[in-house]
Amino acid sequence: MARQSISLTRPNDEWLKSKVDSEEYSSKSELVNDLIRQARKQQIQIDWIQAKLEKAENSGFTEETKEDILAQSKALING
């Protein structure tokens, strides 16, 4: 695993420390990695929605119903 050195503002460091102190995470590294995983998952979801919107804009119409698109986006969000 790659090691990194980062600088944190005091409020961010205190927030990370509080999560570790509450035993929600075993270390700051574990928490930072979890936040990065969440951000990556969120970016995948954003990219998917953006691609759907671009496709719809370019085609001028879609055969999928609002309910279909909503179900697909919820499935993506829920993994």
Task: Describe how the helices and strands are arranged.
Elements: H1 10-21, H2 28-59, H3 66-77
Notes on the protein architecture:
The protein is an all-alpha fold and 79 residues long. It has a domain at 39-79. Helix content is 71%, strand content 0%. It has helices at residues 10-21, 28-59, 66-77. The radius of gyration is 19 Å and the shape is elongated.
Any descriptors?
79 residues; mainly alpha; 3 helices; 0% strand
Radius of gyration: 19 Å
Uncertain runs: none
Compute the number of helices. 3
Percent range for helical residues?
over 70%
- SS content category: mainly alpha
Average pLDDT across residues? 91
- DSSP E strands, number: 0
Percent of residues in beta strands? Answer: under 5%
- Biggest β-sheet description: none
Distance between the termini: 25 Å
| Morphology call | elongated
List the helices and strands in order.
Answer: HHH
Short structural description:
The chain is mainly α and 79 residues long. The protein is 71% helix and 0% strand. It has helices at residues 10-21, 28-59, 66-77.
